[in-house]
Structure formats: C-alpha cells, structure tokens
TrEMBL record:
Region (Disordered): 71-97
Protein name, as recorded: Cell division control protein
Membrane topology category: Lipid-anchor
NCBIfam families found in the cross-reference section: small_GTP
GO annotation (BP), single: establishment of cell polarity
SMART domains, sorted: RAB, RAS, RHO
Localization: Cell membrane
UniProt key word Membrane: yes
Organism: Metarhizium acridum (strain CQMa 102)
Listed Low complexity bias regions: 71-86
GO MF annotation, one: GTPase activity
Family affiliation: Belongs to the small GTPase superfamily. Rho family. CDC42 subfamily.
Keyword terms: Cell cycle, Cell division, Cell membrane, GTP-binding, Lipoprotein, Membrane, Methylation, Nucleotide-binding, Prenylation
Length: 294
C-alpha cells in the first residue's frame, strides 16, 4: 500500500507552483527544495534527511534519498516510533471567506502532492479521517500522535500527520489525513481521497445529528469517490456520554447520547469494517482505533 507509485519508464506527475517557483519533479530535489525554506514546510524545524532509514523490501529499490520527519522527542508509546506532523493550514473562523477558497484549494493540492511525494518510497497505509465539523477528528489525531490534547478548537482545512507502526516485522508509515467537515469544503475535501487505504468516519456520541450524517452524508461521499475502500465508524467524545450537562442539553431537544449499540447496528447496516469508540481527552481506547487501521 502506498500513496503513489511511479512505474518504471513512466513520466512523473507535474506538480503545481507554490509561492512562485515550480516544485522540482524529482523527489530528491523536492526534499532539498523543501529543506531550503519552502513556505509549505518552513515552519517545521524537525526536518531531517535520512537516506539510511529502514524501509520495506519494495522501498529499498528506490534510488533517491528519503525525507524523514521527526518530533524533537520520540513518543513514549512503543507502537508509535515517530510522530511527525508534516504540514497544516487552518482558518481563523468556522465559516471561510469564499473569496479565498480557491487559494486554499490550490495550496492544499500542493500540500497533498508534496506529502505524497515525500512518503512515496516508504511502505505506507493512507488513512483519511472524515466526519462533521467539531466532532473531535483533529483532537483524535493530535492526541494519538503527540499524547497532547488541544486546548482550543480551530476548524481544520487540511492537516497531515504520520506515525511509524510495525505490522508483523515490517515498518509502515501510517499517513493520517485530517479533513474539513464543514459544507464549505465539500469540493476541497475530496482532494485528499485518492489512493486511500482506509477511512475513519467519525461522529460524536454527544451529537445525534453527526451520527445520522454518517449514513446520510459521509458513507455516500466516500463510496462515491473511493468505491470498495474499507471504512471504520468511530464514535468520539465518549467521556462526555454520561456528563450531566450534556445529557441535560440533549434532553431539552428530546434527544439522548448515541449508545454503543446504535453504533454497532449502523456499522452492520452500512457494511463497515467495525464500529469503535474512544476519547481523545482521556485516551480511552484511542490506540485501539488505530490498531484496527493497521
């Protein structure tokens, strides 16, 4: 499984402009270009070029260097050897300025192609996380990759994370693609879908509306763009399921938190791989979610 493969003798994909200069087509040159201060990744101080990083058998055939991304300190979890945050771009408000959507789409496309090229030489699993806005998708990924919980909510446009996981005796790069759940990004979001190996379709157990959208919006969308790709349904924010204030708020709307049985029933109806639930705040069963991905 990989983000991108270039068959022998075939031409490599053309990459668009970012801040003026054309992105180099050769991965080794792209790595060098990024390290010299590209605006795409210039805010990441932990970039290191490591041509000796162990890769899978298929990846060893590559003839160019590998850009390895690291955090300043390694993750204490033995299942997550490295937890780099590759790149991100965010908005400052929940509703974007429509006049700037085109530039966001263009920048995100460049970001996606850059991340794809960087990790092309490593055996990878591409996992895309989708779901309504504010259900905890970003918290899920940040808590898993950094063992920290975000202190404030900032709507995501596009975020990309990666962790190294062991499957059997082979190291794999688990690429985690965070997406925007708001309707304003319905045309931007599918840019991250090509070559996805698995989707995490998220909803909050404290939001019955986000639960219904799993059936009404998210499964139809991912199956339209990526038919046959397996999906896991993930219930988030389970630490709030029994919170008195949450239950009182829902009761005023004549609703109740989503039960585990409801999630499992929907997973069977939609032929999802499995239903799992977790808490990014307490990390309850958080690792189990990504163990299912592997």
């Amino acid at each position: 499984m990989s983000f991108a493969r270039w068959p022998t003798g075939s031409s490599r994909p053309h990459l668009p402009h970012v801040d003026g200069p054309l992105l180099p087509r050769k991965p080794a040159l792209l790595c060098s270009w990024l390290l010299k201060g590209s605006s795409v990744l210039k805010s990441s101080p932990c970039l290191k070029l490591d041509p000796h990083h162990p890769t899978s058998k298929r990846a060893r055939a590559a003839t160019f260097g590998l850009l390895r991304l690291r955090l300043p300190s390694p993750s204490p979890s033995p299942s997550r050897l490295t937890s780099p945050r590759l790149a991100s771009t965010r908005l400052d408000s929940t509703r974007p300025d429509r006049s700037s959507l085109a530039s966001h789409r263009f920048f995100t496309l460049c970001l996606l192609r850059s991340a794809t090229t960087i990790m092309a030489v490593v055996a990878t699993i591409k996992c895309v996380v989708v779901g309504d806005g504010a259900v905890g998708k970003t918290c899920l990924l940040i808590s898993y990759t950094t063992n920290k919980f975000p202190s404030e909510y900032v709507p995501t446009v596009f975020d990309n994370y990666a962790v190294t996981v062991m499957i059997g005796d082979e190291p794999y790069t688990l690429g985690l693609f965070d997406t925007a759940g708001q309707e304003d990004y319905d045309r931007l979001r599918p840019l991250s879908y090509p070559q996805t190996d698995v989707f995490l379709v998220c909803f909050s157990v404290t939001s019955p509306a986000s639960f219904e959208n799993v059936r009404e919006k998210w499964f139809p969308e991912v199956h339209h763009h990526c038919p046959g790709v397996p999906c896991l349904i993930v219930g988030t924010q389970v630490d709030l399921r029994d919170d008195p204030s949450v239950k009182e708020k829902l009761m005023k709307q004549k609703m109740t938190p989503v039960r585990r049985e409801d999630g499992e029933r929907m997973a069977k109806e939609l032929h999802a791989v499995k239903y799992v639930e977790c808490s990014a705040l307490t990390q309850f069963k958080l690792k189990d979610v990504f163990d299912e991905v592997g």
